[in-house]
Every structure is written in structure tokens, then in C-alpha cells.
UniProtKB/TrEMBL annotation:
InterPro entries membership: Solute-binding_3/MltF_N (IPR001638)
Annotated signal sequence range: 1-19
Name the UniProt record assigns to this protein: Transporter substrate-binding domain-containing protein
Superkingdom field: Bacteria
Pfam families assigned to the protein according to its UniProt record, in alphabetical order: SBP_bac_3
Keywords: Signal
Amino acid sequence: MKSVLCSLLCLLSFCHALAGEAAKEVVTVGAEDDWAPYSSVVDRQAKGFAVDVVREAYALVGITVKFDVLPYSRCMAATKAGTLVACFDAVPNAMIAKDYLWPDLPLFTTHMNVYALADSKDSGMVARKLEGRTVGVERGYEYGDEFDLNTKIIRKIVDKNDQGFKMLLARRIEFMAAEERIANALFIRFPTEFGGKFKLVGTVATPGLFIAFSKTAPDSVRLLKKFNEGYAILRNSPRYRAIEAKWF
């Protein structure tokens, strides 16, 4: 009898554990595939600073995140359409702010820089000074309102930042606009091709970058609220600085 009771108790305990696992909420979030060290695809998995931040913020409120890794423009389009609940990393500028829901705080802040060839005499290049000049930009990305809304800048759209820097090396464009850490990571990754070949000649914006939430996806408002809750805890903890130290 005693052994039967023990077996029943073990079975109940096991079922309870399974029920607990089943009760855990899982959400799929879009992550861009080519923005290391913030978010990129490595061995078919999302990796990067922003990936860790989003994952851990949700974990603090009991939600497990799965990542759908895809090009940024597709990620944002799917979020706008409601087939994804959210996508990162986005700048809520005047062109896209109205199309998404935004958290209270950015995932991080950064510098959107302008690069030229190392022998360039240009400096202090802000959006106004780039009017009439050819500037490489990555497809679908935001670089701050002053740059994004200035129609006098001649933009050459590329699918990846390294393509833009190759165009700059070939003198097919005069400048390349790129996020600071992204550019530095490329210069380190391709030292023979890019090392010492470029110089920083200006900064067009110092924006905060966010995870953008869909206005139409089911439950997106609640999931935004849960993200705000978890991220507020993470942001004010030593763990956030540990994630920064890991990636930067």
C-alpha cells in the first residue's frame, strides 16, 4: 500500500511539473539577421546584445521568447502587417512611429555615423552638409529624422552594410551611413579589406533603438506591457551591464 501511495505521489508530482511547463507562455519575436553585435544570425540562431536583452526581459515576467530571424525590412513589414508581434532594432522616427507601438525605454542608444575614405578632407558632416552628395544606406533602416526626411541627400540603397563600404572603396559613393558599433565590427571582421580604409567624418543622429510592437497582432498590447515590466527590472539590475560587457 505504501509503495502504491508513493507511486501515486510521484505521478502527481510529475504531472504537476508537466502542467507547469505547458503553462509557460511562449512568444515569437522578429530579430534582424545582419546587425551584429546587436542582432544577427549565427548558426541559424539569433545572437547579439539586443537578442539577450529581449529574451531576459521577458523571462523576468515568465515569458519564453523564440526568435524569427530575417532581414530587417521584412521583419518590420511582418510586424506592421500583424504576422509578427514585434521586431527589433528600430528607430521611431517620423516616417514609421505611427505604424507601431513603442516601449517606454530603448534597448540601447547609439551613434548613426557617416564614413568616408581615409584620404577624405570632409569633416563635421551632418544631414544638411550631405545634400547633393551620394550616401550609402542600408535598405529599410532609419538614421534619424534630419537625415531620413531630407530629400536632397542622394541615397544609394544597399542590402548589407558591407556592400555599402565596398561601394565606398570603389568610389561609387562618397559616404556610407552606418551605426557606430556595426561599422567597427565590420572593420575588425574584414581587416584586410576594410582595416584603415575609412574615416569617421560626421554623425547624423544619436537615437534610441527600440523593439517595435505591432498594432494589429493579437495580444500585442499586453505583450508590450509585459515587456515594459520585465525590461524595467532588467535595465535597473547589474545583469543589463553584464550583457553590455559581454557584447561591447
